[in-house]
């Protein structure tokens, strides 16, 4: 079975009023105020159905469902359904019977929301009809459809901003820090609290305190490392020759002599 044989329901309103309307004398449009709104000709239920591309406005008895009148709509807005100029709740509908006879009647809704739904149902149907027609044309002639051209036109250029991708340069006049030099030895004073020797003996000589030789003096270099003082070949001298007679006691008392193992020289 073809799709046009199926009938779908678009909108149902339980109450609608039908009015006899006078012929339109000029092109200024219909006015609901000219109708006898207090005395409707008929009242019942309204249904909008769709069969293929055609919509049908059906006026039915609300109890038995008997058809009172039917208005086929093939275009909206159009002559089949027109709005009045003085209200949004009333419309003029062209009804037809099966014998080709036509007549114009007025319909009205007691609620503005029902009138809005009636209008939107017809708009949505014919919007769908238009889309289906465009899809059918594109399927028959795919080469005639709009094509997306992404190529550059003659003389057209493109500009790319990559400023955010670069690191910001320092402002003019801002001093820049330079890395510390790694070449050579920078003699710096020892940090506070460090234990470094302050006695630097002559080359080839060592200091003696209480018979024990002192360790070679050290110097500080960059990075906190220490390096021993360059030592030359020791001379053939003894500790007693360096200090002379100061190592001997000048008195007879044994208390003036240096105590062994204390590391101090008594004078």
Structural class estimated from helices and strands: alpha+beta
The CATH class of the domain at 7-140 turns out to be Mainly Beta
Task: List low-pLDDT spans.
Answer: 209-214, 250-262
Tally the beta strands.
Answer: 11
Provide the spatial order of strands within the biggest beta sheet.
4-3-2-1-7-6-5
Helix content: 10-25%
Report the mean per-residue pLDDT as an integer. 74
Strand content: 15-25%
CATH superfamily grouping of the domain at 7-140? Pleckstrin-homology domain (PH domain)/Phosphotyrosine-binding domain (PTB)
The CATH topology of the domain at 7-140 corresponds to PH-domain like
Number of helices: 2
User: Could you say what the CATH architecture of the domain at 7-140 is?
Assistant: Roll
Shape: elongated
- Please write the string of helix (H) and strand (E) elements: EEEEEEEHEEEEH
Largest sheet: 7 strands, antiparallel
Please compute the radius of gyration using only Cα atoms.
57 Å
Question: Termini separation (Å)?
Answer: 134 Å
Function: Involved in endocytosis.
InterPro entries: NECAP_PHear, PH-like_dom_sf
Keywords: Cytoplasmic vesicle, Endocytosis, Protein transport, Transport
Family: Belongs to the NECAP family.
């Amino acid at each position: 079975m073809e799709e046009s044989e199926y009938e779908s329901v678009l909108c149902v309103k339980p109450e609608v009023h039908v009015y006899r309307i006078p012929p339109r004398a000029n092109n200024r449009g219909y006015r609901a105020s000219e109708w006898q709104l207090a005395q409707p000709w008929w009242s019942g239920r309204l249904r909008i159905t769709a069969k293929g591309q055609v919509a049908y406005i059906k006026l039915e008895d609300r109890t038995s469902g008997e058809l009172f009148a039917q208005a086929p709509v093939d275009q909206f807005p159009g002559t089949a359904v027109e709005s009045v100029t003085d209200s949004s709740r009333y419309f003029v509908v062209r009804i037809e019977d099966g014998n080709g006879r036509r007549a114009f009647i007025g319909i009205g809704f007691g609620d503005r929301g029902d009138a809005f739904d009636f209008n939107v149902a017809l708009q949505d149907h014919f919007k769908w009809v238009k889309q289906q027609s465009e899809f059918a044309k594109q399927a028959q002639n795919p080469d005639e459809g709009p094509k997306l051209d992404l190529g550059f036109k003659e003389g057209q250029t493109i500009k790319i901003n990559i400023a955010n991708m670069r690191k910001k340069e320092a402002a003019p006049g801002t001093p820049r820090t330079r890395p510390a030099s790694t070449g050579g030895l920078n003699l710096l004073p020892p940090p506070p609290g460090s234990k470094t020797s302050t006695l630097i003996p002559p080359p080839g000589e060592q200091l003696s305190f209480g018979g024990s030789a002192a360790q070679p003096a050290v110097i500080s270099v960059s990075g906190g490392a220490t390096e021993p003082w360059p030592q030359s070949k020791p001379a053939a001298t003894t500790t007693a020759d360096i200090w002379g007679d100061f190592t001997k006691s000048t008195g007879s008392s044994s208390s003036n002599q240096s105590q062994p193992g204390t590391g101090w020289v008594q004078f």
